[in-house]
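Entry:
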Amino acid sequence: MHNVTLLFLAAKREEDLLLNLVASVGKEIKKQQQDVLGFLEANKIEFEEKDIAANEENRKWMRENVPEDSRPASGNPLPPRLFNDSRYLGDYEAFFEARENNAVYAFLGLTAPPGSKEAEALAKQQA
């Protein structure tokens, strides 16, 4: 079982989201979350989702576990944020960069499956 955790924001109603975030920021966050979820699901990577909009404990956990140097200058860290167990992995930008570099499995702290672009790139580096 993989221990990847994705902290995300999911409002039951659009009005709830608008109360918490400016609409354009909310749409961007939702797009980023869908991008991460789509990748994890398409690659059959097991993960746990934690909604920070509907669960105060999840929101508190995220605020406490995002390292100081990864927090915004003001306000609270925004989702999506990724963790492996309690080890902070990064935000969407870090995930996106890892994906662009064919290094998502390494970013997630997982072993790339044989035949994946990432595994092939690792094999070339080690050769």
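The two ends are 30 Å apart (CA to CA).
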